[in-house]
Amino acid sequence: MEWLIAIGVLFGAWVVYGIIQQNKWNNEYTTEIGRYYKLSPEQSKGKKSFNGTCYFDEMAKPINVGLRLPKGEKIYGAFQNINLMAYKRDGRVGAYGVTLRKKVVPGVYLRGGLGKFGLAKSWQVEATGNLYFTNQGIFFDGDKKNIKLKWDKMMRETIDANEIQIEKQNGEPILFQGTISPEEAAKFTLMGQAYESF
User: Fold this and answer.
1) pLDDT tens across 59-88, in order?
2) Which architecture does CATH list for 60-90+120-198?
3) Helix (H) or strand (E) holding 11
4) Which of 116, 170, 173, 187 meets the CB 3.0–4.6 Å disulfide criterion with 77?
5) Is the pLDDT assigned to residue 198 strictly greater than 50?
């Protein structure tokens, strides 16, 4: 019984640690966004939305990563060593369905129903590489797969400390996982918002 209590305490501590880390990341992320609005860290810490003039164009400078780009396209940031995830079959077999068991006589049962067997799916790493964001869109330079997507093809971007999810106009969402820098995340968010405002 004591080992169950110990496991519960460790699990609770792990959950609390995760929440503290996420809050710390969120505060750094909003502070970085606030910097482009020329707000102090105290003014922007934990803020949900920002109003006023954004000075992203004046403050953010393109970076050179040694890649050839089309004319006029400039890289503003990158997420290094990030995983492109795919929701695909993982080899496990599962079954589900509706069944009926009816007693006919003592010890004899009639069984029937509909069942289905299938291979289970889960998120798996499809490629590892760098995700770059530019003034025209994003591109993923991976070891097994590359993706290029323009800002006007993206419906919504969700970002946190461990992942970036991009919902496209059509097709499945794209999921990237890895360590997400709050500084780069802020630039990524502001690039997406800047494109939406045009």
Assistant:
1) 888 888 888 888 989 999 999 999 999 887
2) Roll (2.30)
3) helix 2-36
4) 187
5) no
